């Protein structure tokens, strides 16, 4: 498929569990493997139809991203930027169109809240390239999919597309590509396609796809999660969560090679069991420094594993976007993700929502720095913005209250 991105143009099966011994590298992570289209019986998952559809479309969205990314680095001049200087590619808009089209067909009464709108495409003559990448992945007849269909699908999730009001609402939340800076860096950085379902104000199911995630098959170090040194067939995961059913992952490998069989193995995810701050592994936003965290006066950050002292913590290498950090905590590769809010930066629901359920169902906890749960309904009209008090804390649960106490004791903000 020729992707001239910047060129102007007019049944649940029997389940078996296989416990493995926890590795000290991951501080008590436990694994259970299961074969099925979903890793739990349908009768236990009220929203299994929605989740199955979400998994299917996120898998296709990841495939779309990989193909566009390959094209991005085969020629020059394929990256565009929005007015806020965040790199955006045709994949970003293509994923939103694809997800909107598929979910709109299956669940037409459920609105979509998503990051993009079609105005940028129209202004920069990028409609045709987006139609091209979407046509290759959608279940719609390629001949019948028009530019108007794709633009309408993108705008279905855009600003002002739906007025919610004050009552608890049911809707999808999509981040087409969280970590677009990682996307344009190529195979050495992580990015995530994130999708979740909110029912009557509660996040009930979610899917994250991370094509560049290095699958842990040999107890490698945590840094190996970012980027991959082997072929693409060795990388990528889908993470799913359903309320009351846990968080699970399976490999994305081989879905990009039709000659290979896709593995149906799901692995149960549990947060790590770390109980000591100086033994924990921390993530912070790439735009922030350790010194911006209130209790940095108590602990010095180090990025190596050697001889971490009592007054030091292990700070994992930064990866782009917020959702990959939720993925790190939910999978047990990080203990803490902590983010400080800034008055000049709006915090969007799609940067956090699917991560919240994945961490919760893996045994972790997510609150603001006051200890309150994230309120998705605070933006009553559009459900696009969240307002966490002072910051967001994502943890393995064991360390949550201790971190909140340290934040409170050493902060001039709260």
Describe, in plain words, how this protein is organized in 3D.
The chain is of the alpha+beta class. The protein has 2 domains: 42-216 and 234-268, Fructose-1,6-Bisphosphatase, subunit A, domain 1 (Fructose-1,6-Bisphosphatase, Chain A, domain 1, 2-Layer Sandwich); 277-411, D-Maltodextrin-Binding Protein, domain 2, CATH 3.40.190.80. Helix content is 24%, strand content 21%. The chain has helices at residues 48-72, 90-106, 119-123, 127-135, 147-156, 180-185, 323-330, 353-361, 400-409; strands spanning 33-35, 80-81, 87-88, 112-114, 171-178, 192-199, 202-214, 235-242, 246-251, 265-269, 281-283, 300-302, 312-315, 336-340, 347-348, 365-368, 385-386, 391-395. An 8-stranded mixed beta sheet has the order 1-10-9-8-7-6-5-4, with helices on both faces. Strands 12-13-11-14-18-16 form a 6-stranded mixed beta sheet, sandwiched between helices. Strands 2-3 form a two-stranded antiparallel sheet. β6 and β7 (202-214) form a beta hairpin. α1 packs antiparallel against α2, α2 packs across α4 and α2 packs across α5 (147-156). The radius of gyration is 20 Å and the shape is globular. The N and C termini lie far apart (53 Å).
